[in-house]
Amino acid sequence: MMSRRRALFLLRGRPDPLGFPGTADVSFNGSALRGMWPVRCVLSFFFNTTVLVLTINIVAGLF
Fold first, then answer.
1. HSE-up of 34 (CA within 13 Å, CB side)?
2. Cys bridge to 28: 6, 14, 33, 39, which one at CB 3.0-4.6 A?
3. Distance from C-alpha of 45 to C-alpha of 10, rounded to nearest angstrom
């Protein structure tokens, strides 16, 4: 028996390449929002990297 997800994929045809955010824990309801996930991922990467670097510098400055 075919799963509902596979059946919907077959009915819609080729998937939108921007519509696959990998293993995200959020869902995007509109196609405009689906196009924003790469920007969000890049911004969050740089934010997290900045926080990590600042933390390392603060800890290193204590010793």
1. 13
2. 33
3. 34
How many residues in the chain?
A: 63
Who has greater pLDDT, 51 or 31? 51
Give, rounded to a whole angstrom, the gap between the first and last alpha carbons of the chain. Answer: 63
Q: Which residues of 2-21 are buried (b: 16+ CB within 10 A; e: fewer)?
A: eeeeeeeeeeeeeeeeeeee
Nearest of 29, 23, 56 to residue 41 by alpha carbon: 23
Residue 3: per-residue pLDDT = 66
pLDDT digits (tens, 9 = 90+) for 18-37: 555 555 556 666 777 777 87
